[in-house]
Amino acid sequence: MQAYAEVSTEELQTLRKKLSAQYKEYQSRDLRLDMSRGKPSIEQLDLSMGMMDVLSSEDDLTCEDGTDCRNYGGLTGIREAKELIGDMMEVAPENIIIYGNSSLNVMYDTVSRSMTHGVMGSTPWCKLDKVKFLCPVPGYDRHFAITEYFGIEMINVPMLPTGPDMDLVEKLVASDDSIKGIWCVPKYSNPTGNSYSDETVRRMARLKPAASDFRIYWDNAYGIHHLYDHDQDHLIEILAECKRAGNPDLVYKFSSTSKISFPGSGIAAIATSKNNLEDIEKQLKIQTIGHDKVNQLRHVRFFGDIHGMVEHMRRHADSMRPKFEAVIRILAQELDGLGIGTWTEPKGGYFISFDSMEGCAKDIVARCKKAGLVMTGAGATYPYGKDPYDSNIRIAPSYPPLKDLELAMELFALCVKIVSIDKILADRKSAEAQA
Amino acid sequence: MQAYAEVSTEELQTLRKKLSAQYKEYQSRDLRLDMSRGKPSIEQLDLSMGMMDVLSSEDDLTCEDGTDCRNYGGLTGIREAKELIGDMMEVAPENIIIYGNSSLNVMYDTVSRSMTHGVMGSTPWCKLDKVKFLCPVPGYDRHFAITEYFGIEMINVPMLPTGPDMDLVEKLVASDDSIKGIWCVPKYSNPTGNSYSDETVRRMARLKPAASDFRIYWDNAYGIHHLYDHDQDHLIEILAECKRAGNPDLVYKFSSTSKISFPGSGIAAIATSKNNLEDIEKQLKIQTIGHDKVNQLRHVRFFGDIHGMVEHMRRHADSMRPKFEAVIRILAQELDGLGIGTWTEPKGGYFISFDSMEGCAKDIVARCKKAGLVMTGAGATYPYGKDPYDSNIRIAPSYPPLKDLELAMELFALCVKIVSIDKILADRKSAEAQA
Description:
Two copies of one chain form a homodimer.
Chain A (H helix, E strand, L loop, with lengths): L8 H19 L5 E3 L6 H5 L32 H11 L6 E3 L4 H15 L14 E6 L3 H9 L3 E8 L2 E2 L1 H10 L3 E6 L13 H8 L9 E5 L18 H7 L6 E6 L11 E4 L2 H14 L5 H11 L2 H30 L5 E3 L8 E5 L4 H10 L2 E3 L16 E4 L6 H33 L1
Parallel strand pairs in A: 1-12, 3-4, 3-6, 6-7, 7-8
Antiparallel strand pairs in A: 2-9, 4-5, 8-9, 10-11, 11-13
């Protein structure tokens, strides 16, 4: 195919009319398609229905150490759950605190505690004039929402195919002690789907931050969310790497079973060093008597061990793989060679990242919406919702059934084409006017 | 019986020896009795085992409005749960947010949010030089722990049989705008077991605080935790009373099913005005995508409605009533007329409050411990763990089986006698020395 930029204005105008007719045809179908969030599909949820059967009134809800899961207590979680989640997070059970149902909530609480009480004895951030976070972009909107809520200034750092631009990260954290953290989704990143390279992880672990209370917020949300059995990304385990680098307290690692068992009814956890754990527990024991141990036990009984969990994730992959492949196939089919968009081809996670021509993303998303397809808002992948290029769009293939997804992606590609032609034609017009 | 104060020194010394022998006999039995916390007994936990059967893989986990409880979403809780908990809390479903498993956590988050973001637009408390809370005493140690953790100054207010000393409360909140809250357990209070009188509730609702961001922290933890079918305390509903008084935003009401279904695996809630809810939701949507809806649905399916919950609480009462009655019977039997202690006789809740002679509580608790009986630490019922009279001891009858409880209370009464005699004899000695 010929790149649109090289097509004559007349030909583009003709094409535009043809595409308009197609678009109108979509509009007449009263579609209601939602690809806005990384929600598991009903098919995926059904995979975990066995969770509802593993504990019955005939079962003993007692842990191996005698803890009655039904009663109060167990501030940091039951041993069995720490072992399972430890294997999932690739850390020792001793380095884990099990929380409630949401790792987002754990991250929020971690920032909130740092605001009111600092980090391991540092000045509470609310007492400082300025607190900043580094935000690899494009990134996860709910991370940015937390830091924005607390008035923390967010600094964009470009995401490269290998992870955040480490030259920039190293320079910034070493020179500015108001920088207290960096948001990371290191594996099958949200939204690019890329994983950090070995070098990136090693450089992360070797950061020399000016602020002693700087921490890496390592949101390993998609650690075992592969699409393929063998063709998988591998990430160096960050806690161990930080320890080897002589920086044991540098990182908070977050994870949950939200996209493994049930979103909203899973279990979340933090993994970090002994020093950080002690610091956190001082607060945790004031905040709660303990999280839901029955649900922890339910997860342990359902998955058995990490092998059971990995097998379970293969069934998720069977549902997700055709969807990712369909998105990539349709994008390639419709847009390859046109020079109006690029996209990632992840091997896992929940997202594909699409970059349109500059200045087109908002219009594409708006045009999709007018035909009944809801995408993640353009700009959402940037702090303050401001994509300086207005080009990034997050594609979330998980929720719709495959047939709907294919329809949605065809509509999406159509909208990309229409908006891109309009942009090219408008640019030519204003160039002519200026000449 | 004769009051110890009127018994001769010689007789007291003889009695002391006899009691010492009894105490040694207890010590030789290697007892391990725990009455330190308000934990439901195993018998009570067994009452809720049906919870494990109401949802199976054959069941539809969908709400009446079509919400799939297994997936993300539902920030403020499912409608069915709001209706059930609304009936439990005596407020409309519209005034409720359902949280995770712990009302303590909700209270912590409420104070934490006020620290970082203020209340309905007020200055964040962390930006103020001084923040104070009123603490009716004796009270609940975990309330005091939250305010202490955030550096909030706590001011003791005496608990009368009718509730907090309202003359003092009214005077303080009207005159000092650094006073931002008051901790209340209004029904079957922790630890006295007393409930606020109608006049107290009415005066609470009519408070004229100097601080616009002052709120009543109304922890109605024992709202339906009666011991008797008819002889029950009744509390005026505070949200409605505040509305009638023209103070609709004055109160946050907290509750949970922790001592109804399973502690640690229940559901917690806040009930408050529309304005307060809006303020809270601004934060909540940053903190989480939603709490555990499957567990909310589990509670709804298990209890059915408020009548089912009330019937369930009658079964709890059948377990608790004999324990409360045993404590009161043994205290009366052993201590009536001796002038060395007073205690409350609640009609519900989880605690009985005991007041020893001044300066004896720590010694009594220590002496119990040396014979294998763990009581709540003396002083725990006061802010900063400091009981100015060293006299209050919280008795938690729920957890031990009845036989153990009876043994524990006999031992407790014995320790009260020994410590009281020692105190009287020491006082007499120092009076003689001074003379």
